[in-house]
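So, who can interpret the following?
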Amino acid sequence: MSRGTEIGCRSIQIFNQSPRAWRPTDYGDEDFAAFREAMDESQIESVIIHAIYLISVVTPERELAEKSRAALIHALRVGDAIGADGVVLHPGSRKQEDPGKAIRRGGKLIKEALSDSENCPLLIEQMAGHQGIVGNSFDEIADLIDAAGGGKRLGLCLDSCHLFAAGYDISTYDGIDQMLKESDKKLGKRRLMALHVNDSKEPLGSRRDRHADIGKGEIGERGFARFLSEPRFDKLPATMETPGPEKKGPIASDIELARKLRSRGIGARKRRNS
């Protein structure tokens, strides 16, 4: 949280444990109370948890599924304890299995994890298009949410780099509108609960998830001015997952640039609509 405050964030994303290890961090009530107190005393308005990368809720491998269930339950319970606005989840790889069977199994696992936690939403992240990965399309996300029971705690996290890599040209007004129309049709407007804001090192439709600093990738500053000023994104918690100038994540000037581009985009939209 201190880093988020230092670089001027109003929302932050955290891992509830090491993102590349199964062993959960053992938190106690004092830890949760201290976190909530620090939130209250900071400028941070929202916290999102990113579930660990090892999780695959759609895997056909029994041992991996059991580990994934336990890790997801732990993340959701931490989210409950700190008042997080959601746990973001990569659904994982189905290997060579039939998508429908994998999605039904993943939905069952998610439903079980939700039943073992209380209130924290689970946000399915839309993926970049890698072969065998579930969540590359809004159809797959809708099917996974339906398989998990379709409850109000199930939502969507959009990632700008993933969208662009998957073939949605979000650098244009029409591309943003078409993407959101498809999302709304397949999932409903209320499912969209969070954003990841990242430029793309790879071209449109590449299906390669390679993040770039804002304005320094294929989406570009003009594209981000349009994307960040989209009215339907107002008040959503947004996380920047860019490499930063020292490959240690974004710095204060990156956050400030995003705010400037959003303001520039709002002005351009007003002129466009007048």
